[in-house]
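Now read the record:
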Amino acid sequence: MSKDFYKTLGVSKGASAEEIQKAYRNLARKYHPDLNPDDKTAKQKFQDVQQAYETLNDPKKKQMYDQFGSDYDQMGGGAPGGGFPGGNPFGGGGGGQVPPGFEHMFGGGGGGAAGGISLEDLMRQFGMGGGGGGGGFEGGGGGRKRGRKQQPTPGQDVQHELEIPFRTSVVGGKVSLTMNRPGGNRETIDVSIPAGIESGKTIRYRGLGEDSPNGGPKGDLLITVRVGEHESFTRQGLDLTVKVPVTIAEACLGGKVEVPSPHGTLTLTIPAGTSSGKKIRAKGQGIHAKDGTQGDLYAELMIVVPKKLSSKETELVKELGELSAETPRENLHF
């Protein structure tokens, strides 16, 4: 059955030699068996790509193929076998035409998993690395050297612990940090604290670490955050709880109270007959995360009793106690 080599490489019949070579390189890397160990069809696809390239890259073979199809070699015009024109430049073989762009890979070398083309050779061709040895590289037989330029070493990272106020951990802000640099130098820098950071989290600041010893990038600054306590607010995830003092009258009769929040002052309504410990929820008034999620604010009401009562207040409280029919400890038992 005749094969469509143009379709195999994904090029048009009028494609240039450069387009054919580029298509081959992409597909050879895509289907190389060493890069697809779990794909049982990869080897056959790779060999099909090789066969299509060896034909379309050779002007004489391409002319025969265009005239007689993929069975052109049976017409007496093609070379036997499935290698490259004049031999496979990736494995052993005689001289002859070497496909453009593969000259530096010509020479001795063991056969790989895909008909003599090893993964190392393929990676070299595409600039993906690979070891020495083989034709043309330093230590090989081609006489062409490629020195390896030493990569610059990044500077060392610097680690610090930093305690920040509770409010800063919720709404974010800038904090000054003094660092000891090599040579006894001290440097004070301002670092940005993201809103919603939790205690124990580490923030990475690029390029604020130590200098590189050989011209590479600077290291990073790693700050582990410790959040201080707040006298009125506590945190649970993205939710905040604030203790709100209320008077006996507000608890008994109800009313409106103003409550601070990270997003401004809120006015909350206290139901009549509220006891200490009751929580009023303000939806979305807690911590706002980077992903857009929002926590809630819970106002926990705490009834405050006057430390000293006037004589009139004392009489009124006694009268209230005598008039009240409730027994608050009725269900208290061991």
The CA atoms of residues 167 and 262 lie 8 Å apart.
